[in-house]
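Quick review question:
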């Protein structure tokens, strides 16, 4: 044995090899095998790794030159290497502090002390989780996505932090930006999030077959992933009219409900299935009663969930349940919300209460007499109050033939006029600074502006038409810019309906009030009608092009029916009959559609019969 040791020592002396050198070589070899086996070489492509290795090498050289600082340097080297994946000690303390101090988290106090990428990721994860308001949550999510693009993330960080929030781009209407990110991160194409994102893009393109195809590839067995996958499949099967395939999906959703999982879309889809597909009143009542008993921390989620039960009770005509639910919402709004959000909910409930005939006079008059409190707020409250008040006044007059007291009405209009210019200025200011990716907020602001302009136009029909068309054109341009095909088609239909329905209302009014034909406002409008007619006809052609591009797919039945209606309104009976026949070939069960759509179909069908 001694002889073997002597031979090894002699060889090492001859080859000028040391024990430390051998150990370093062995360590390098083993490290190489580990990196190759677990595909860790990708880690060394990251700037975070190379920058820290450079610092470590510099400190190592310093340690060799200054023997007295070796121990301290090794400790610091360890910290530098660990921060590739973990926060620094002081960052861990700050993150722990944030968990119990949410106000400081929201304000970003001590944020400047967070320097490592891993700490910043944890900071944003906490901020997003702490947001109770949907708008605030979306703002923070978009801010996080923009910041994270500047960072050098590892793949596991993309999967854990980035991908779970990427769908916010789709939710705010930024489809083109969302699709661009999906292409950039195509290396994760088999990830459950990315497969789900592909179904969103297929939904935007009205391609329900692709939705089913992508969802069938999802192998993630987690509850959250499976639930989202089931909801997407349910949407695809309903759009394509495959009711039988919906049954097993609903059965699986009920299993998740039994587990205690609360998901608003799940409850909404289940109620839709019971009420409008199966027409099962008992199952719908049971689900609605279950919803009413739930307790949620976030008022927005709470309200969205109660809306599911509310719409069921309304479809069933259960007035007692509706009244109880409205009282509950009013009470909980005062308890759970404060400031402008509380006032906004009160305003939104005004028309709902009127529409359901429950203490609407008492409730609306209370708000009208207290209008100064609402009007002096920002446009978020004030402009909404003007919009909902005008809507209520108009419909009260149309349905009952009796308006409000003239003195009260005059005072309200004076107050509205006094504040509208300020609201318009505030809206324009927000429109100018709004991130162009927030499509749905942009639309909401423009539609609010439209109502104010309509009020200020003082029945100038030409000015109303001009303002409406300008706003719809801005919306459609932004939809096209953001790549949102569904909203583009929707607002094409909305604008056509606005032009033709407004004309029909004017003609109906003229037939009942002949003296109006002599007014300058009507004469001016009539002189512009040919231009309005041609414009509406061109917009209808744009809708038809989209329908043709999808080969009149059954999922577009709603738009096919509206196209038949529009051609009927402009007097093109041949085209109207063609699209109505196309709609009837789908074999759609109109019982599952809203009453206004059923009435619309009846009008066109009668017109078709008379032409035949």
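Suggested answer, residue by residue:
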């Amino acid at each position: 044995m001694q002889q073997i040791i002597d031979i090894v020592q002699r060889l090492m002396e001859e080859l000028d090899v040391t024990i430390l050198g051998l150990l370093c070589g062995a360590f390098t070899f083993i490290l190489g095998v580990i990196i190759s086996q677990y595909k860790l070489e990708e880690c060394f492509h990251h700037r975070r790794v190379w920058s820290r290795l450079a610092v470590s090498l510099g400190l190592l050289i310093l340690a060799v030159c200054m023997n007295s600082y070796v121990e301290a340097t090794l400790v610091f080297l360890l910290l530098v290497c660990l921060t590739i994946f973990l926060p620094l000690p002081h960052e861990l303390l700050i993150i722990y502090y944030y968990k119990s101090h949410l106000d400081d988290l929201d304000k970003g106090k001590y944020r400047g002390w967070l320097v490592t990428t891993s700490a910043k990721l944890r900071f944003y994860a906490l901020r997003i989780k702490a947001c109770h308001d949907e708008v605030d949550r979306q703002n923070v999510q978009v801010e996080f996505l923009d910041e994270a693009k500047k960072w050098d993330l590892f793949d596991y960080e993309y999967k854990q932090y980035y991908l779970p929030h990427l769908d916010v781009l789709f939710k705010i209407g930024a489809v083109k930006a969302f699709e661009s990110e999906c292409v950039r991160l195509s290396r994760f194409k088999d990830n459950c999030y990315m497969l789900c994102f592909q179904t969103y893009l297929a939904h935007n393109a009205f391609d329900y077959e692709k939705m089913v195809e992508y969802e069938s590839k999802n192998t993630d067995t987690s509850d959250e992933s499976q639930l989202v996958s089931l909801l997407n499949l349910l949407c695809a099967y309903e759009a394509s009219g495959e009711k039988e395939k919906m049954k097993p999906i609903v059965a699986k959703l009920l299993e998740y409900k039994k587990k205690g999982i609360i998901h608003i879309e799940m409850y909404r889809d289940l109620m839709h299935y019971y009420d409008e597909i199966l027409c099962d009143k008992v199952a719908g009542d049971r689900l609605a009663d279950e919803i009413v008993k739930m307790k949620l921390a976030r008022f927005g989620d709470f309200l969205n969930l109660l809306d599911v039960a509310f719409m069921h009770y309304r479809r069933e005509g259960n007035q007692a349940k509706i009244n109880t639910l409205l009282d509950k919402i009013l009470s909980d709004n005062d308890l759970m919300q404060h400031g402008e959000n509380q006032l906004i909910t009160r305003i939104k409930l005004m028309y709902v209460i009127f529409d359901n005939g429950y203490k609407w006079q008492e409730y609306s008059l209370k708000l009208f007499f207290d209008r100064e409190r609402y009007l002096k707020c920002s446009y978020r409250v004030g402009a909404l109050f003007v919009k909902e008040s005008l809507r209520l006044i108009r419909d009260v007059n149309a349905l009952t033939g009796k308006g409000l007291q003239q003195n009260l009405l005059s005072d309200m209009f004076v107050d509205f006029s006094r504040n509208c210019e300020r609201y318009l200025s505030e809206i324009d200011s927000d429109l100018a600074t709004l991130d162009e990716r927030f499509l749905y907020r942009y639309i909401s602001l423009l539609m609010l502006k439209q109502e104010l302009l309509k009020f200020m136009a003082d029945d100038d029909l030409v000015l109303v038409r001009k303002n409406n068309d300008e706003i719809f054109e801005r919306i459609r341009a932004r939809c096209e810019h953001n790549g949102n095909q569904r909203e583009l088609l929707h607002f094409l239909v909305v604008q056509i309906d606005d032009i033709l329905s407004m004309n029909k209302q004017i003609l109906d009014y003229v037939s009942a009030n002949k003296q109006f034909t002599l007014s300058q406002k009507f004469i001016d409008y009539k002189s512009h009608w040919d231009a309005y007619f041609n414009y509406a006809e061109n917009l209808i052609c744009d809708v038809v092009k989209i329908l043709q591009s999808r080969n009149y797919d059954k999922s577009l039945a709603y738009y096919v029916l509206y196209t038949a209606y529009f051609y009927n309104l402009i007097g093109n009976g041949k085209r109207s009959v063609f699209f109505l026949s196309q709609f009837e070939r789908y074999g759609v069960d109109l019982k599952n559609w809203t009453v206004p759509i059923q009435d619309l179909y009846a009008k066109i069908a009668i017109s078709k019969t008379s032409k035949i």
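Why it works: Residues 89-163 form one domain. The chain has a mean pLDDT of 84.
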